[in-house]
Design a protein that fits this description.
alpha+beta; EC 3.2.1.52; beta-N-acetylhexosaminidase activity; elongated; GH; beta-N-acetylhexosaminidase; 67 residues; Glyco_hydro_20_cat; 2 helices
């Protein structure tokens, strides 16, 4: 589900390796400050548009094979 984000911001996704070669991109990379900057920007935009107290972002299907 993060693939569309990775097209625009590949630096925020983890790299998936197979035999030492990058074979794709995985979940968001929590070690990168740019990940948190992008999420913060998203939160601010959502708050401007929707008055709801909560919103669901997913994250319940994280592929662990890229870690």
């Amino acid at each position: 589900h993060t693939r569309s984000w990775g097209v625009a911001y590949p630096e925020i996704l983890t790299k998936c390796y197979l035999l030492g070669e990058v074979v794709g991109l995985g979940p968001m990379d929590p070690t990168q400050n740019s990940t948190y900057n992008l999420i913060g920007d998203l939160f601010r935009e959502v708050q401007e548009v929707f008055p709801d107290k909560y919103f669901h972002l997913g994250g319940d299907e994280v592929a662990m094979d890229c870690w």
